[in-house]
Structure formats: structure tokens, C-alpha cells
Amino acid sequence: MAAASILALGSAAAVPPPAEAAVASLACTINVQLSFSPPLTAVQTSASVVAVASLSNCLSPNGSQPQLAGGVATPVTGTVSSLGGVPCNLLLTITGSGVIEWSPGGEQTTFDFTVRTNVLDGTVQLTTWQTGGTLAGTTSQTVGAANPNLDCLLNGLSGLAVPVAVTTFL
Q: Is the whole-model pTM more than 0.85?
């Protein structure tokens, strides 16, 4: 009986503890403006992308980046593909890369990104992978409201704004 108790205790110790949730390195308010050239239409289903993003009110929950208060991501370039015949329905995939210049101090982060849209709730999901500089090796997630250019139905999709969202770097 004692051997069975020792065996049971020994096997219980082999169970790993539950994983803890990652604490964010940085969380910021973000405003993104994407411009497409040429505008996407029913026949023009791909285009070049130029984007500008401003990051502000940054906080470092895990304390690793207290020096980063905000920044500007520019130049940000890439490509966009419309997955449907009517680009104003926002069935889009956008990929590219860019550089964030952080303030104060001018530290930089290079990143790759993908934007996917959710037409059911009108949101976009921006995922970035930091490839160099400050925050290298982290990923970020942003979900915000998608606002296409107002004349989209007449002139094609020439831009998309995500006016206010929160991005979290893990």
C-alpha cells in the first residue's frame, strides 16, 4: 500500500503547472490610415498600399519598455488584394512592412504586417511581427472599426481608416 502511495505522489509531481498568460510589453492607442493605388474596383483587385500609423498613450504593463510613450510608423508599404468582386464590401487582405520611430528617444522597430477584414462586424484585425530593433521578437494585435473612403461605391476603394484602436505588443 505504501509503494502505491509513493508511486501516485511521484506521478502527480510530473504534471506541469498551468501556463500563465503573457503580460504585454507595450499597449498603445493607434490610429491607422491606409491608401490604395490604384483604387480597388470590380476589375482592379490588387493595388499598392502606403500607410501611416500614429501610436500614443503607450504603457508598459510588464515594465520592459517604460521609455516608449508613442511613435509614428512610416514609411509603411505593402499590397492589398480584394477577395470579392465589390471591394467596398471590405473582403480584403493587406500585407507589408514598415518602421516605427518611437518617442521620445528615436528608437526604431521594423515590422511585417497583415490586415484582415471581418465583414460581419465591420472590423479589421492588424497583426504585426516585430523583426528588428526595439520590441524585436514580439507580435502585436489590433482590432478596430474599418472606415472606407466615402465615395467608394462611385470611385473604388482608395483608402481605409482605423481611427482609434488599442494595439498590444506581446
A: no
- In angstroms, the CA 15 to CA 139 distance is 29
Q: Positive or negative, the Cα torsion across 135, 139, 143, 146?
A: positive
Beta-sheet pairing, 70-82 with 46-59: antiparallel
* Cα(51)–Cα(74) distance, integer angstroms: 7
The total of other beta-carbon atoms located within 10 Å of residue 146's CB is 20
The strand pairing partners of 72, in sequence order, are 54, 101
Q: How far apart are CA 148 and CA 122, in angstroms?
A: 10
Q: CA 111, CA 91: separation in Å to the nearest integer? A: 23
C-alpha closest to that of 137 among 22, 54, 19: 22
- Each residue's pLDDT tens digit, 94-131: 999 999 999 998 999 999 999 988 777 778 899 999 99
Cα torsion 42, 45, 47, 51 to 10°: value is 80
Taking the C-alpha atoms of residue 110 and residue 5, their distance in angstroms, rounded to an integer, is 55
Residues 6+ apart with CB under 8 A from 20: none
